[in-house]
Structures
1.
Amino acid sequence: MQSTHLSSSSLIHEGKAKQLFLTADPQILRVRYKDDATAFNGQKFDRLLGKGVLNNLISAHIFEDLANFGVPSHFINRVSDVEQLVRRVDIIPLEVVVRNVVAGSLAKRIGWGEGCPLNQPIVEFYYKNDDLGDPLLNENHIDLLSLASAREINELREQALKINELLIRKFSTIDLKLVDFKLEFGRQPDGILILADEISPDTCRLWDRKTNEKMDKDRFRRNLGGLLEAYQEVWNRLNKVEDA
Ligand code: UDP
């Protein structure tokens, strides 16, 4: 058994929603999902007891599902309520956002109302940089900053669109509309890019198909309340389909 001292000393990274720990295997890390909720680049903060458990369950479920459809990720397995083992990768400092419906920053940027459907998905890249407030980048900026090669940008776009197709289908089976979501990718030691980070209601906008009720982190961003209940409902629906 690992002592508290050992596990805290093996902490190698702490983000807003997760902690990363070393394991005995240098190629494998342990991710611990926290209960912390943050928005607006950390300016809004709360602790919502149980969020870590739900995001760990949901994210693990989705990564397993994607793997079954031929999309590998860093995910290995879930080892506790709040922890999963993942392959160690070098995270590319880009947030890859895919959108099917206008919401959030896109609504502000183009002046269209939230909820307008897009006739084809939009892929966007944001620079993962808190000091700069995660700005939107185009391919020239990504090249200038040497964040990814032109070939890798194409690969990121293709993988993101494939994941979008699979997730739209997955969520529609549980009566959820996939409005938009954010992905992160990592480079393996052999240079191959794989999906990493998490896929959860913290990183996706999910609306109930019939009522358009928001079932995601917008409940926290917009002070709507009921975040845990919404995440629990997402998990119940995912889990029910698996049981069926
Ligand atoms: N997103 C995320 N982390 C971020 C920024 C965005 O997971 O740091 C997700 C967000 O939950 C949404 C999508 O990416 O599903 C698009 O977010 P948007 O650009 O509209 O920004 P926001 O409205 O969250 O500021």
2.
Amino acid sequence: MMTIHLTETANALVASDNGLLAMDESNPTCNKRFAAHGIPQTEERRRAYRELIVTSPELSECISGVILYDETIRQQLTDGTPFAKSLDALGISPGIKVDTGAKNLAGHPGEKITEGLDGLRERLAEYAQMGARFAKWRAVIAINDSLPSRACIEANAHSLARYAALCQEAGLVPVVEPEVIMDGSHSLKRCAEVTQEVLRTVFDQLCDQGVSLEAMILKPNMILPGLLCPEQPSLDEVADATVNCLLRTVPAAVPGIAFLSGGQSPELASARLRAINIGGKSRAPWALTFSFARAIQQPALELWNGNDSNVNEAQQELLHRARCNQAARQGKRETEMERVST
Ligand code: 13P
């Protein structure tokens, strides 16, 4: 019974060419983004910014789920409505980030292990009671000449799988996010090899832990070279490498793959999502969608700049980015304003 309900939620999250909007930055990360624009780093400004996002008109036409952070799911809009309730009323599923961050992995300099399993069963029950329908856990995998280690891949895959099993037990759809990060000078090929190994290990662990693949969403990186790599590929090369890697590693039972943006510019993230759908849709058994944070929020954050008189303009920009990504899922461009050539 529970699994049917979870499968329906997972399918709804990736339906109708919609995608997910991640606004689950931890307080330190949100403060860092505010500091870069001179925005006061207070609980009230974080709340006001999150209110701007969730009250953007027509958001539900392109966004099926929004990922919240612990502080936000406990906050209310100015009119007193809790964030989760206001999203629900719009037909947008509220989600919640439940990991407690990536910490240094003992004995493995330069590598991270994501924590948060202690007490997770109790926290998930509370979030479900507050209205969350799905959850997110992000693991971070770095590449350099000698990384990642098997220790890092296995530890993170195991944690992701234990998190996912606990989510399903609590009636929440797990979004499983193993992110191979873009820092460094590695090639596209190396990112493909590492991501392939990571995803194979993650799905092995998910199966070992008894996670229902029909009732989860995978949130991976696109296959991209490091930011410092001198050779930057075309959109088609990224799309090909990404779809090939996923076809080799992700079981067809998974309903959807929702990419993170990982620090790509908003325009490039949309253009690559579009190329992935054009090149991959006919071959892919899963929906290929987005779960972006920076690539949807960043231009709106800059327009808002902490000033409430800029709310309308910022909301229009947020909606524009969301619509660009919805159009990308359909293999289209939203407007002529998109400048990235294909
Ligand atoms: P970005 O799209 O900014 O990479 O964030 C996605 C996310 O949710 C990271 O956990």
